[in-house]
Amino acid sequence: MDTLSIIEKPILADLDEFKRMFAGSLSTSNPLLNRVIEHIRQRSGKMMRPMLVLLSARMYGTVCPATLRTAVALELLHNASLVHDDVVDESLERRGQPSVNAIYNNKVAVLTGDFLLASALAQVSLTRHHDIVDVVASLGQELAEGELLQLSNVSNPDFSEQVYFDVISKKTAALFAACTKAGALSVDTSDENVKNARLLGEYIGLCFQIKDDIFDYYDNLSIGKPTGNDMHEGKLTLPVLYALNTTGDERAAEWARKVKNGIAAADEIASLIEFTKQYGGIDYATKVMYDLKAKAVALIPTDAEEEIREALAAYLDYVVGRSL
């Protein structure tokens, strides 16, 4: 049985109900909006975040309508953030397909993102669960703060790992943490369980983003992300930060400063990538990721059903071992 099948096995029926509810949440009479939403749905991934909501609920109880509404709300919010991110980053592709702003324009993309965000809030309100509403509302704030922190970091002369982790904690890990926390909340488990569930999601999200960042040092055209794409967007991620901070190489630091200022030439970015590989940046980031994975595994409750424990372990295996 492949990894995804192990993840899905204990929640197959719940996942089918989620997909039905998710499709219903996107119903609209606007022809243009329908076309845009259909385009977004065509590039839908493996529904990793909704599956995490369902698995988190199953760690401590039984999936209920509030769990499903929560999963729908968080997937809607996730999609809204992707549409808005593509506008902010001026990205023309996502997962190998044209972005919404590339096919239409920024106005349509921003308004579509707004529609998805409003739909997320409408769905979470149907849970009638104040704490879950708080999670989703706070998540919207964190995602925006993460984007702004990343933008403001351009003027920071330091190559700070702490700032890097602050950014990815808000931009990526916060969403996974919201999935596990809200999933646990939906089954009314103890405060201690909710706390552990949130931390499990945070570790998963950090692993997910570090893996994504490692991809950037290799050709990955299957997801529309050529080598060095992050650097072309002015972003310095964990592998290069480690290499810069451990070597003190001034020539590489100059390339990195140019990356931050958006003036690095293609050959300088290529040289910085090779420098990162040569001086252990990829190995370091990989070790950090696996250390975080171990912390996440330790948080999977030993008294949960065996299938749920196996599914969560497989989820972590998938996150760190995926090829896209």
Note down, in words, how this protein is organized.
This protein is mainly α. The protein is built from 16 helices and 2 strands. A two-stranded antiparallel sheet has the order 1-2. Strand 1 and strand 2 form a beta hairpin. Helix 4 packs antiparallel against helix 5, helix 8 packs antiparallel against helix 9 and helix 10 runs parallel beside helix 16. The radius of gyration is 20 Å and the shape is globular. The relative contact order is 0.12. The model has no long low-confidence stretch (mean pLDDT 91).
Give the strand tally.
Answer: 2
Strand content: under 5%
From the spread of the alpha carbons, the general shape counts as: globular
Model regions low in confidence, pLDDT < 50 over at least 5 residues: none
- Return the string of H and E elements: HHHHHEEHHHHHHHHHHH
SSE class? mainly alpha
Distance between the termini: 20 Å
What helical percentage do the residues reach?
Answer: over 70%
